[in-house]
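Notes from the pairing session

We agreed to fold both candidates in a single pass and log them together. This is the raw record for the first candidate, unedited. Please don't reformat it; downstream parsing expects exactly this layout.

Candidate A
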Amino acid sequence: MTALTLSTAGAATLRADALVVGVAKGTKGPVVAPGAEAVDKAFDGKLATVLETLGASGAEGEVTKLPAPSGLKVAVVIAVGLGPVPEKDDAYDAEALRRAAGSAARALTGSKKAGFALPTESAEDAEAIAEGALLGAYAFTAYQGGENKLAPKGKKDNGAKLPLAEVALLGTKPRDKAFKAAAERATAVVEEINRARDLINTPPNDLYPESFAAVVTAAGKEHGIKVQVFDEKALVKGGFGGLLGVGQGSTHGPRLVRLGYTHPKAEKTLALVGKGITYDSGGISLKPAGHNETMKCDMSGAAAVFAAVVAASRLGLQVNVTGWLALAENMPSGNATRPGDVLRMYSGKTVEVLNTDAEGRLVLADALTRASEENPDAIVDVATLTGAMVLALGNRTFGVMANDDAFRTSIHEIAEEVGEASWPMPLPADLRKGMDSPTADIANMGERMGGGLVAGLFLQEFVGEGIAWAHLDIAGPAFHEGAPYGYTPKGGTGSAVRTLVKLAERTAAGDLG
């Protein structure tokens, strides 16, 4: 991953490939942001004029490259848009800084080192810039740059350029505890987000339940996290009918993976549950053409949970965090679950499967019940669960449902604070009747309208009594199919990791009651 340093150098003395400065959108044209004073001086105080001449306005995400003047020791100056000038001097929003840094880092692909001289008035600003730059510099190149057998012998086909190698944050205080902690937190969290992105982007012929579990086991050993893997025999013995029913059509058997991070002084326990469908064909209820190509991303919830637990361990948070990864591959075959089949879940409830493409709720149901047995203070599940949530909220916002209004509000506020767009959604009791089954205790489908809420109501049936629970449907933002923007790449995004980590921090601090 891209290296991060807190630099004591000034903008005029830093030796690097490029220098990143901020420019805001003013009422009369671009306005040079704080942090760029030395650069503006090198342009004889005319940096804003030069940028305006080149068509720059300071709009969010706008990137303008300039050859550096002789007064600087870099080759290129990159002016990145911060959006409107804030009403209060220097009070740039953390997300604006995060996105600007991400846009600049993407523009610096192939560079060795760049200085970031964006507005930095506090350690929180430095952390936002660091997060944005490190997230923006991400590139998934595991399947590029190998031996090209059509090329001359011994020559490598290097494919895509490597991401920016080093980010130097200017205007920081390297010896200040708050700044050092901010840099360390940003590095740990982003490395785990990028781990999640790598997993999401990995082709399903290489990432399946068993191989996913092996990755988790290795990470557990590295970071002092206890990992327990329930294989097919254990799932059969335990009666995990949801996981087994979804996974039985594949040659790759299902797994339930438990991660346990504990702190000796912890007073609270937070359980995180992730949907881990490593490939979703829809099963017998096969997806239509055009809907299969990105279904390697259907394990994004499990990747987010995995990343969050490891981040909690790396940060040494004073809270116990368990992660439950419900892993299966949903495939059609002679062994696959059929529409009309009835599964007996781990909870003992029976479920009539009306649609095998509503499989995520089945594996999550088993994991939620198992997580509830340990009586945590709260449970949060994360899943790319329904297309209905994408229709409701679009591609960049995830839905938040809960059995406790205050808990739902807290998670929504946390998500907004860390820069992840979310929206609180209801669980209307009247929609539950649509899942009544003449054959089983409940069906896995209900009314089509409000389908995302129906899925949430289904999951609620499998949460232990008296446990605060929330459900994050990240179907929209988990996988980005368009052009990169800000710090968001094409492909897996690592959606919800920052929210889960902040939730763990708040729980450790006792801020959630």
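Candidate B (folded immediately after A)
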Amino acid sequence: MSASPLVGWDDIVAAEPDGLAVLDCVGRFVQLNPAAAALLQADTEADLLGEPSPFTLVEGAAECRAGLLEVRSDEQVAHWEPARGHRREFAYRARSLPADPKFTVVSFRDVTDEWHRQRRIAAIARTSIALASEGSLGSTLDAVAQQIVQADGLAGVQILTLDSTGRELRLMGSAGLRHWDGFLDRLLECRDRGARLSMLDALKERKPIVVPHRWAQIREDPAWEPLHGYLGELNWDSFVSVPLMARGRPEGVLNAYFAPGQEIGSRTLEFLAAMAEHAALAVDYATLLQREREGARRNERQRLARDLHDSIVQQVFSIGMQANAAGVLGARGEAVSAEAVRGFADEVGTLSRTVLADLRAMVHELRPASSSLRLGLEDAVTTLVKSTENRTGLSIRLEFGQQVDTVEPELAEDMYRIVAEAIHNVVKHAEATTVTIRLAVHDHTLTAAIRDDGRGIAESGGRRAAPENEDGAATGATGHHGYGLTTMRERTERWGGTMRIRSDERSGTTVRVVIPLPVRVPESPLDSEGARSIPSAVSLREAENPARSGS
């Protein structure tokens, strides 16, 4: 004896919170429950009967595991753009009716907000990775724009940056729009014709500017005629411009073009603000990096000018004085002794050889990375020492520990420069006869010690002992020698290291540099499915911006 059901199936279907729909063989609605009509933004189920559905008639997609930054499941995804209301995103499953396979039952739910939120989190994470990856500023901002378009399904995104004067905008990143070199020229032409640029309002007010139905306004405005054709290629409606703020100042704008039916709510603006912050960080970092490079070039030119003045210019001046003296003797018309001629020749020869040695040393110091550093830090320092010994007669003792050549190239370059500057200071100022250089890697730390037997560090022109402060800096070191120490310290601190100096007039000077090595995640070998290990991230590098366009 079978029991009667407590609740009828019609009542269950009517109360089901998820949408249920029956489709015919071509995907048209045949039957819906009330939840389905509400999700599809219809007044009643009858309004949708016979209408084409957004669902694909394929029984459940193959189940797959979603990655950390991916939004995937065994559900399929459909987009619904109603005649009125906002575009929605549905996750659904489809099954054929066993009794009549020409009909398909679909269960679906609205995941617009949920999946937007997941995609936005993934976009922010991917953008953080892009900021730490190698590439030019333009390619980085392209990646940011692409993540925004993919996360929210926008029609297009542009990222424009201000130049160093803060007066001119440059298009540096875009996604969703055709690249066109003439975009900025046409934009300025529209401005000159009286068009109002919302992005300038965002820069001026330093807050997001939202313009609903912006395309309809532009399409009807004759001032925008130079860009009607280009912007008309994009299927868009509303517009948002968000300023890129760094250190309290605007660095550019992020322009977002919304597709018809897309809603611009507080969460959307919050997401765009977060991505604009990432873009501003990339611009600010690139600006600081460029300033650092310009400062390094300026300092290097100053050092070259100093060295040329201190040695080569003075020596060439001495050669000129010897030549003038020889000319004066010759003008007298008197016989000049062979001994005097040999004296002039010896003096000029010595001075010219010294000038040549100094010039060769400068060339060698300027070009270490292109040659000897390719073979490792140990070989590079050895080559530098041999060159210094040959031209100066200074005796230099080298001691290398194990794993010195395992240091990464950028750190090796800075350590080479530190050692080279220390040797340069000894040659120019210490009046030493011997130098000992020790380089080693121990306890995950790179250490260098350069000790000479000359006189102490100069306080004010001489090379006398200078006391140390708490950080190991010579408090009395000033002038040319102080500049060299500052450069060495800056290179050390770039890697989170320390530099200490001990100096007195009896035992000479010792410079000790200690730099902690970065911790590396061991790379895993290829597995049976060919998975690759995760590469280590490298610093962002700025490159010249190729021609870009977008909107």
